[in-house]
Amino acid sequence: MSEIKEIQDYKRYLSYEKNYSFHTVKNYIKDIEQFINFNNKNINITENEIKKYLEFLGRKKYSRNSITRKIISLRNFYKFLVKIKKIDKNPFSYILTPKTEKRLPNVLTEKEIENLMSAANGKDFISLRDRTILELIYSTGIRVSELVNLDIKDIDFINEEIKVLGKGGKERIVPAGSVALNILHCYIKELKKIDSSGILFINKNKKRLTPRFIELMIKKYAKMAGIEKKVTPHTLRHSFATHLLDRGADLRSVQELLGHSNLSTTQIYTHLSIQKLKKEYDKAHPRAKK
After folding, report:
1. What are the CA-CA distances from residue 193 to residues 19, 117, 125, 154, 189 (Å)?
2. CB neighbourhood size of 175 (10 A)
3. What is the pLDDT of residue 277?
4. What is the DSSP letter of 262?
């Protein structure tokens, strides 16, 4: 823990009053301590010292996204210091944050999806559970945090829908494909033989799975399938959205399916689909390069 009392106070504030996660707090404090140490443990700084620090980050080749995060961490810390009357004004108030770089998400081809699914053969309960998870994420595009909180009662086989509790406690209904629903039906039948809690995805101790567990599980099957790309639960979500757009789905429909509150968040997937459009253009247009 930092020796500086104000940083300790801020850490407690983030943990207990703001109820931030352990990792979020850790990253905030790390950014703040780096800056304070750069300024010889002096909290009272001016805009001139901030500019020197930003120049230092630039020389060290920090990414634009990292610098943006550090500025936000420090601006919030100094806002807290103003609030508890340790300083009169926030020196970061007029420091502009650079625009973040939008990275294109990793996406699997339809063939890679097939190989990934086949890696979980479904011959025993664990393998069947894992195959069901893979099919469900790709079929619905739901977040891993939404998936782990599913219960059996959230699956509507009659209407081929799933009820999902998304970000901000917002409920939404998402359609599920017949392949995912068929394997879900088989999985639930086996699940009910060993557990009656109503939780949809359980571990060997009959407890709810964690997002981290699913992340490692997907990584394992990607390796078994011979996929060299980095594959995470988000990769399946990205692939779901991209494949829908590739096959002509409307952007607003994809936004609803993903549970994005802003269309601009969904628009990143159009950058991925444009690659397919370019191939079609090169193939079909008389003036395209041969």
Report:
1. 39, 24, 11, 19, 7
2. 14
3. 57
4. S
Which residues on neighbouring strands pair with residue 156, listed in sequence order? 161
- R_g of the chain computed on alpha carbons: 24
CB 204 within 8 A of CB 175: no
CATH superfamily for 5-83 is: Tyrosine recombinase, N-terminal domain (1.10.150.130)
C-beta separation of 201 from 125 below 8 A: no
**Which H helix or E strand runs over 288?**
none
Check: CB of residue 245 under 8 Å from CB of residue 269. yes
Structural contact between residues 94 and 46, judged by C-beta atoms closer than 8 angstroms: no
The alpha helices in the chain, defined as continuous H runs, are 5-12, 22-38, 47-59, 64-83, 110-119, 125-140, 144-148, 178-194, 211-224, 233-246, 251-258, 263-266, 268-284
CA distance 23 to 15: 10
Catalytic residue list:
143, 167, 234, 237, 260, 269
- Domain extents for the chain? 5-83, 110-282
Confidence of residue 206 (pLDDT cuts 50, 70, 90): very high
CATH assignment of 110-282, among 3.40.50.790, 3.40.50.300, 2.70.20.10, 1.10.443.10: 1.10.443.10
Question: What are the two backbone dihedrals, phi and then psi, of residue 111, each rounded to the nearest 5 degrees?
Answer: -65, -40
Q: Which amino acid is at 124?
A: D
pLDDT(158) > 80: yes
What mean pLDDT, rounded, does the chain reach? 86
